[in-house]
Amino acid sequence: MNEDDEAAGAPVGRRVILGMLGLGAVGIVVGANAQQKVNRALAPLGPVGQVLPAAGGFRYYSVVGGVKRRKPETYRLTVNGLVNKPRTFSFAELGRLPQTRMTKDFQCVTGWRVEDVAWAGVALPDLLDAVGVSPRARAVRFHSFDGVYTESLTLDQARRRDVLVATGMLGGPVEHDHGGPVRLYVAPMYGYKSLKWLGGIELTADVVPGYWEERGYDVDAWVGQSNGRDDEPT
C-alpha cells in the first residue's frame, strides 16, 4: 500500500497499516483480548495485514510500499514542547551524548517474544537533561516519522534508565524494518510502547494517549502487570 491509496479512498486502511508497523510487536501472552483487537484492526486489510515471521524470532506486519527510509546522514530528531532549550539532534549528535547499553527481552502484548536483545543508544533521561525539562512538564509524547503512530509516557516513566532512544540493536545499527535509524525502546513495557521510526519527542503537561491506546490498549503497559520499578540498568 502506498500514498496513492489515501487519495483513492482508503485512508483508514493506511492509518491502520502504519500503526501496525509502529507496533513492532514482540512479547508474551497477556490473554486473547489483545489479539482480538489486532485482528479487528487488520480484518479490512486482507492479506496485507498478515503477520510474517522474520529473522531472529521477530515478526513484522507486511506492508507494500511502507514507511519511507531515512539514512543516518539525513536523520533528525526534534525535541520540543515544555523544554528549556528546544533542539534538533542529528544522528551523529545522538552518538556524542552519553551512551547506554543493555540486553533485555522485547515482548509483545499479542503473545510472542524475543529474548536477550542487545540494545544501544541514549538513555531518555540523558536526552531530556540535554534540553532541560520545564517544571510544567508531566509527560512525554513520541512521534513516528511515518506521520501516524504516536506514544506517550509519564515523565516519571520516561526518567527510567531502561527507556532508550535506540540507535543500535542486535549488535549493529537499527535496521529500517526494526524502526531505524532511531527508535524508542521501553524495556519494562509491552512492544507497542516502543515506537518505531522515532522522529519527534514532545514534552507535554499531560499524557496524550497514543495510537494503540486510542484503540483500547492500556496507557500503562507494564509487562506482567508489574510495578515497573525492577531491574533498571545503571
From TrEMBL:
Q: Where is the Oxidoreductase molybdopterin-binding domain?
A: 66-212
* A matching Pfam family: Oxidored_molyb
Which residue ranges does UniProt annotate as crossing the membrane?
A: 12-32
State the UniProt keywords alphabetically: Membrane, Transmembrane, Transmembrane helix
Transmembrane helix as UniProt keyword: yes
Which SUPFAM superfamilies does the entry mention? Answer: Oxidoreductase molybdopterin-binding domain
The name of this protein is Oxidoreductase molybdopterin-binding domain-containing protein
Q: Which organism is it from?
A: Actinomadura fulvescens
